[in-house]
Each structure stands twice: as structure tokens, then as C-alpha cells.
């Protein structure tokens, strides 16, 4: 009788550990990287845009300090540039070449890293002067 109780207790603990093992990886799999979140937000911005061509990430500013909670809003800023791909293409923007001497936009706002929430609030404004030149310079890999 004592052996049956011990065996039943061991079985219960094994079941709890198995269930815990199934829950923990799925919770951590929902957090996206800072860059992944920006790419997803940019994809949605491209879909909502009324402009003819897609925009692609040109410069990603450093991420904010991690706070451990992927569900909280985090500040984000990045620069995008117009590509040669029409907005109606099925091609990902990362595979599109940048247009020469075209629009560069500075984008800023907030995002969450929690994939299940997928929240972002980002505004983009056309860059002028030095920022546009810097974007072109970076795109050429630092060559004039």
C-alpha cells in the first residue's frame, strides 16, 4: 500500500513537471526581438500607406533598456527609405533595392515585444537635409 502511494505521488510530480515544461517555452516564445517588432510594424505601415512604393529599414536606433516585461510599451526609433518595389508586390521589403535619391523617413513611437499583443504606435516624417544625406551615405556603405 505504501509503495502504491509513493508511486502515485511520483507520478503526480512527473505530470506537474511535464505540464510546467510545456507551459514555460510557449510563454517565452511569444516575445519578439526589438528588430523583429520594428520589421512587423514597418510591414503594417507599408500595408496602410497610400504611397506607390514600399519602405525598407535603413537605420535601427539602439533598443531601450530591457525591463523584463515584453507586454509594456517601449520607445522605438528608426529610419526607412523608399524602395523600387511597388506596394502591391508580394516581395518582402528586405529583398527590395533602395531607390536612388528618394524619400528617407524618420520614424518614432512605441511598440510591445509581446507577439500576442502586437501593439505599436509609430509616426514617420520625411527627413530633410543632413538626415537625408546621412541615410544615403549609410546606404552606400559609407562611400561618396
**Shape category:** elongated
Number of domains: 2
Which sheet architecture does the biggest sheet show? Answer: 4 strands, antiparallel
What structural category do the secondary elements indicate? alpha+beta
Mean pLDDT, nearest integer? 77
- How many DSSP helices? 3
Spatial strand arrangement across the major sheet: 1-2-3-4
Total beta strands: 4
What amount of the residues lies in strands? 25-35%
CATH topology of the largest domain: Nuclear Transport Factor 2, Chain: A
The CATH C-level class name of the largest domain: Alpha Beta
Task: Give the distance, in angstroms, between the N- and C-terminal Cα atoms.
Answer: 84 Å
Helical percent range?
Answer: 25-40%
Low-confidence stretches: 22-29
Radius of gyration: 23 Å
CATH architecture of the largest domain: Roll
One letter per element, helices H and strands E, the order comes to: HHEEEEH
Give a brief description:
The chain is built from 3 helices and 4 strands. By secondary structure, it is of the alpha+beta class.
Can you give a write-up of this model?
With 144 residues, the chain is α+β, with helices and mostly antiparallel strands. The chain has two domains: 1-30; 31-139, Nuclear Transport Factor 2, Chain: A (Roll). 36% of the residues lie in helices and 25% in strands. The chain has a four-stranded antiparallel β-sheet, sandwiched between helices. The N and C termini lie far apart (84 Å).
Amino acid at each position: 500500500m505504501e509503495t502504491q502511494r509513493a508511486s502515485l505521488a511520483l507520478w503526480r510530480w512527473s505530470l506537474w513537471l511535464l505540464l510546467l515544461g510545456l507551459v514555460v517555452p510557449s510563454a517565452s516564445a511569444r516575445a519578439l526581438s526589438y528588430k523583429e517588432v520594428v520589421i512587423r510594424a514597418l510591414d503594417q505601415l507599408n500595408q496602410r500607406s497610400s504611397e506607390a512604393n514600399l519602405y525598407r529599414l535603413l537605420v535601427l536606433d539602439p533598443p531601450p533598456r530591457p525591463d523584463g516585461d515584453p507586454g509594456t510599451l517601449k520607445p522605438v526609433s528608426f529610419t526607412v527609405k523608399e524602395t523600387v518595389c511597388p506596394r502591391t508586390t508580394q516581395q518582402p521589403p528586405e529583398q527590395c533595392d533602395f531607390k536612388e535619391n528618394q524619400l528617407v523617413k524618420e520614424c518614432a513611437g512605441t511598440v510591445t515585444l509581446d507577439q500576442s499583443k502586437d501593439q505599436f504606435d509609430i509616426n514617420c516624417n520625411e527627413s530633410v537635409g543632413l538626415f537625408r544625406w546621412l541615410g544615403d551615405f549609410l546606404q552606400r556603405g559609407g562611400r561618396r
